[in-house]
Structure formats: C-alpha cells, structure tokens
Amino acid sequence: MKFAIIALVWSFLCVPTSALAYKVYTTLTNGQRAPSSCTLDQPRKLRWNTGEIPYVIEPVPTQVLSNGVATDAIIDSFQEWEAYSECNVPTLKFNGVKQNLAVEYNEIDPESNENTLIWVTSINEWGHSPGILALTTLTYSRCTGIIVDADIEVNLAQFDFSAAQTPPPHMTDIQNTITHEVGHFLGLDHSGVASATMFANAPDAETQKRDLEDDDIAGLCCLYGTGSPSVVKSPEMVCEGAPPQSEDPVMNNDDDSGTGCHTSRNPAPFSWPAVGVTVGLVMLWVAQQTRKAHRSAPKCLLFLSKPHIQPRDNV
Q1: Is the pLDDT of residue 15 over 70?
Q2: What gap in Å lies between CA 99 and CA 14, rounded to an integer?
Q3: In 142-297, at which residue ranges do the beta strands (DSSP E only) sit?
Q4: Under CATH, which number does the domain 2-314 receive?
Q5: How far apart are CA 28 and CA 9, in angstroms?
Q6: Which of 28, 49, 156, 256 lies in disulfide reach of 261, CB 3.0 to 4.6 Å?
Q7: pLDDT in tens, 236-259
Q8: What b/e string do you get for 23-52 counting C-beta neighbours within 10 Å, with b at 16 or more?
Q9: Which regions of the chain does DSSP assign to beta strands (E)?
Q10: What pLDDT does 20 receive?
Q11: Contact status, residue 88 vs residue 228, Cβ threshold 8 Å
C-alpha cells in the first residue's frame, strides 16, 4: 500500500496561555482549501470521534526487551493519557499482542484496520529519516479532521531501549518514548515547553515524559474538551470517499467555546504561543511509503507521519 504522506503546518485553533505552548494538528492552514467534496471550508482539528480507541502491540523482540515488562510499560504509556478526568479523552483499550502487524490503512475493508504499535529491527525496514526514535502515522479525513487509524513504529534498528524502572545511562526509556507517541496518536503536535511530554527532544535515559505536564493536559483538553462528549455527530457535512457518515461525523464547536481549550491545572494569563522551534524537528516528512500493494486511500483520506523526539545530542 502506498501512503500519501502530506506535509501540514499547524494552526492555532486552540490558543495556549502564556505558560503553555502545546500545538494540535489541523486539516487546513495558510489559505489551503478543502476538497470540492467538502461542504465547509474551515480548518478542523485532527482528533478521534469515538468513545473508545482500541490498539494492539506486536510481540516485543525478546533479544532487545523483556516482553512482559515492555508490554506493561507500553500499556502504562497509553493509560497515562486517560488519567486526567478534566479532559474527556476517549478510552484507550489494549486489545492484546498480535503477530504480523503493519502500518497501513485498508480502504476496501475499513473494519479490518487496527491501530498498531510495531517494532522495526532492521535498518532496511526503517523507511524514515535516521536518528528518529519512533514515529506515528495518522490516517484522517481531510474534510472533517476525524482520525480513523493510527500506527506507531519504534526504531529498534538504531536505538537501544530499556523497560527498566531506572534505565541505564546509555539507553532510551521505552515508556518515555511511547507516552510521547500516544500524544501524536491522539492528535497533538510537538510542544515548545521543555518539560512537556510532547517536547521534541529527549536525552538518553530520560523518564520525565512518562508523566504528563500542564501543557500536555491543556492540549488534550483542547482536542477533546472538558464537558462535551467525545463523539459529536452532525448530519450536514458529507465527504466523498470518507468512511460512512455514522463513523465520520463532523465536529461542531469550531470556535472552541466550551471545549476547555484554555484549560490547565495552573491557569495563566493569555498570550500568543511561542513558535521558535527548530525547523528540523517540527517539519512533516513529505514522502511515499510502500507497505501493501493494491490498497489505496479514499479520496478524502490523507496520511500524516510525524517524527518522534530525537536525541538531544543529535540536534
């Protein structure tokens, strides 16, 4: 399958307060127009529109990580994003360990798709820029911004990961890494706050990204709100080639009123967000990636790959 990877620039539909710098993915920025099949021409935040998001994990290569311990660490990474009741994040449901997973989206049989975490153990199989610890690919409707599939790849070919409570100085903490990736999985971009889980750099043995900071929680509440339901259905917007309307509804409240977009545990005065982030860390990679033949994306679905945090000494 060939993935059409599109380069996007975020727009600040959710404006952080002065102490916050989270960013969210959106569909339209800088004057881009929606496809002709869309009935509205407005930027949409990328987010899930379901109360439960299942995911599966490939068996952990035992020569690299302890299978059971690493799986537990990954589950903890997903659960960290569910732990904050102030944000109405969907339930992230672990559906077990499964062989032969891939980064793909089957448009012919959408029900067969799974949200996956896979391990890349060969440099020849790592189809992305070297020096990236992990990468998340989102499949979403470019009309509505609704995410329909997410896949995480972990680069075991170039990095040594640890699932220990205290990782060795020369290794990368798997829970630290995956907690960051789950933020992308849910629709968050990199943050400019150095202490945030969604910050774009990580030194060896770092563990602080295991736990969300105020900036991460504010971004999560921006996407999923604090009082409105996760599933928002609207009949007036139909996107040709997208999943059935019942599965691909438009989000309302585009002005973000009542969605908690400015919420944080320590509210701060309003200011414009900081944008001084290294271009090499925030650019979205424009590429094509072959995973399975004879499967193509619907007209209104696009694929977004986002590089994960890079080791700080490589920046």
Answers
A1: no
A2: 39
A3: 147-155, 161-162, 172-173, 201-202, 288-290
A4: 3.40.390.10
A5: 8
A6: 256
A7: 232 333 232 222 222 222 333 222
A8: bbbbbbeeeeebbeebeeeebbbbbbbeee
A9: 2-4, 52-57, 91-97, 116-120, 134-141, 147-155, 161-162, 172-173, 201-202, 288-290, 301-307, 310-311
A10: 79
A11: yes
CA distances from 138 to 4, 32, 229, 257, 269 (A): 11, 20, 22, 26, 33
Cα–Cα dist 219/191, whole Å: 9
Element (H, E) at 77: helix 67-80
pLDDT > 90: percent of the chain: 53
Side by side, the strands of the sheet bearing 134-141 are 91-97, 52-57, 116-120, 147-155, 134-141, 301-307
For residue 225, with 0-12 CB atoms within 10 Å meaning exposed, 13-18 middle and 19 or more buried, which class applies? buried
Pull the structure tokens for residue 199: 């910050």
Q: What pLDDT digit, counting tens, does each position of 39-62 carry?
A: 666 788 999 999 999 999 999 998
CA–CA gap between residue 28 and residue 142 (Å, rounded): 8
The CA distance from 248 to 51, in Å, is 13
Cα gap 153→137, rounded to integer Å: 8
Whole-number Å distance between alpha carbons of 126 and 123: 5
